[in-house]
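MODEL INPUT / OUTPUT PAIR
PAIR INDEX: 1
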Amino acid sequence: MAVEWSVLVLTCQRGGCVSAFQRELEVRRLRGGLGPRPPPLLLAVEDPWASLGSGGATLNALLVAAEHLSARAGCTVVTSDVLKEAHILILHTGRDFSFDDCGRAFTCLPVEEPSAVAEALVCNLDSLLGTMTHRLCVGSPPGVWVCSTDMLLTMPSAPGINWDGLQGVRVIAVPGSQAYARNHGVYLTDEQGLVHNIIYKGTEAQIQQCAGPDGTVPLVCGVVFFSSDAAEQLLATHVIPPLDACTYMGLDSGAPPIQLSLFFDIVLSMARGVTEQDFVKGGGDTSVRNARSVLWAALHTFPLSMACISNASYDYMTTSASDHIRSLTLLPSSASHLFFCKTAHSHVDQPCLLEDGSSVTNCLLEGAVRLAAGSVIQHCHLQVHGCDGSDPKFSVHWMGSRVRWPWLGCGTHDYEICHALPLWGCLSGGAEDPGSCCPPQAQGPGHPWPVPPQEPGQIICHGCRPWPEFLQFHIPAAPQ
């Protein structure tokens, strides 16, 4: 079975190439990636402001979806009646991601799908679309699903959610360890499964209070369902200041920008253990407090329930290199509809040199390229000749068209991650081999990835060894 979506919305940041996102949706429709009956409406929606937040982006996307549904129904103005029988999926692409220029949603996974209608690279967006369409949302009543794309999410084929008589809003949770919850959000619920509060990076005592009999806690996994009635009420707030500033209509009218969180400004307004005074006061500046007051009045009467899916898994895509490598080299749980493989959409001259626990996606590896466990290479053409074959451990996510770096494959230390980027202007220097202009970046795997672009042709060393030692070991012939 599969959900037949009425509208599929993919949001992107301001200036985030909305036309490219629209093409990506159309490509997935053409290659059969949106099910046997794809949505009649595929919409890429740009945030009207920078740093709008997931809550503001949800309200703006809901408004755009309602406009298109109203137009298809022959209405000359937006009417919330079109939401009563609609099945809407909103996917948020979120913020920039250090390890992929296209963001977490389009991060490639080491997956091949032989049974797919058309062969193509599989990215996190494809995984989430499959999870939502064929697993998690099957059997749900009309309403609006909102899903983040900043995590790897797996669900069993039959999640076992009871949708009978659902009213209000339901959040989806995944069981996780209390140690993992220290850096994430968890739900505090009562015996009936109603949410009392959302604890983010709580104390040990707060997290323990959320634990079930087996010691696990319900992790916030970035997925929430609004019934059609709740979605109508949320949509109605788009004309009320200051929430009008979350939509493109507010942009047109000159309303000052406002930033809202989906979970801590919208969903939390329905939690039974939070008072109106505490909720409104926790809003920071005056505009957010006013927005919270409007949201409380509109949504607080709706019950907020939780469904915690056993045998599901959630892995937030952090800015840690070691976390990212672990996500791409460890097999997903048995609940996943995808299966990670060591070599995906690649040709490798000597596959025997790839250790178990390494990952190669969309690559051509020529010569004695040896990968140790915990190594990831994507989108590369590597040629390695004349090395001794000692074990490297590195991650390369973009290397241009052709790369010949003799030090790759010659014993990179385990605590270093090498990352090649086409930094500003480095591909326009007219070199005979454009890919050779891409400078390597080396960094300790536990350090956050460097954000600001460096000068073209510069080699950057972060969290590893002193400059002389790094250069002498890796690039003996490098200029000073």
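PAIR INDEX: 2
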Amino acid sequence: MFSGMALLRNNAELFPERRLIIDAALNSVAKSDHGSKIVRRGGRRFSRITKQRLLRWSFLLLALFSIFLTVYGLKKFLQAKIESRFSTPVDLEGERHLEETRYLYNYGRPPKSKRRKHFPCEVGLRQSVDGLIEPKDYMNFTWVSLDYVVGEKKTSENDLFEPRFGGHATLEEREKSFYVKNQTIHCGFVKGPPGYPSIGFDLDEKDRAYMFSCKVAVSSCIFGSSDYIRRPTSKLISQYSKDNVCFVMFMDDQTLSKLSSEGNRPDERGYIGMWKVVIVKSLPYDDMRRTGKVPKFLSHRLFPNSRYSIWLDSKMRLTSDPMLIIEYFLWRTKAEYAISNHYDRHSVWEEVLQNKRLNKYNHTAIDEQFSFYESDGLPRFEPSNENPLPSYVPEGSFIVRAHTPLSNLFSCLWFNEVDRFTSRDQLSFAYTYLKLRRMNPDKPFHLYMFKDCERRALLKLFRHRTGPSPPGTA
């Protein structure tokens, strides 16, 4: 009672806002029953509103999820239809086997998101050619007499015979050619019977005479106007090499015409820079890549009196002295054949997949060649094992070789594989080398495989000429 009177007494002294609040509180106490009815009625209304909103949201989420499932299923359906329409019949089990093998030989590396960069490394070449002499015991290799099939005859008058540059060696003849012995083998330049057209790779007699005189040869080629001409860096070539080494660039008339239109015309002696231009008439293959294997592998046939030869691809410029290269890769290692390993791949299984992925050649032809090699004992490259070579895939754009009997035999055998199967020589390298080694355990072939970074240190690498590929390079 006292507190209520005090409140009433002081009510007049309160601010208007406070008086309103207190009056509302007193009224709510006096009408508590009526107030509770209002709260209960409002709670029921709130419950009805909450349930309605929940139902709306649930329906919306269900609709969105249904739309997602419909779009995803339609996408998968269309993708399957497209793949089935454009895919060709393949051996699914074989493809699965190749895919598994690719990951097996990927050394646990994660997939590459971009192209790896490769750099040159230090090469311990001599400072100059002064005092450079071939070691007395260098040519202490296996020696056999090796002759070549120069012509073939028709087996009967009824046969439809067509002469081929590589000849028509049977599988039995092919098998026997892998034995290191005195023999006559197919090695290109196989003429047909009298009256038949040329098998190709015809050269001018003056050019033949020049090549016959070469003791050391550096060669390259451009066919089908597929590249620019890369002149050796003259200031890095010794005067001795300029006087004693033949630098020969093989090309066809189409390439010569293209280069001449760009200002690279041969001088009165037939040279463009240090390159002696040799024109090839009647190319032996429609496939320009396969035609390029003739000077690449058969330098001992084109330069019959040469003791050494160096091959470099047309996309490269020689920036080192050839005699120093021969001393470093052959004399110092006591090898008769030197080639670099591939910069990325070491397994033929991986190389097969890469060629098919980039459509380097007809897939069926690649599969047939690889199946033949597998059935004939081509082993897999095992990084953890002691392999006869550091890689079963070469980077074949740079080859240094002595013209010894086994070097010549290996070159012929490798060329014959390119002639019989695909022109992708990286697919046949390991098979040819390992079969030759397996069939002649007591007659070793001294092949030295050097690092790719050394190749990059001695040559300047360019890109091939852009534009449409010449015929037959697929």
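PAIR 2 NOTE: The chain has a mean pLDDT of 83.
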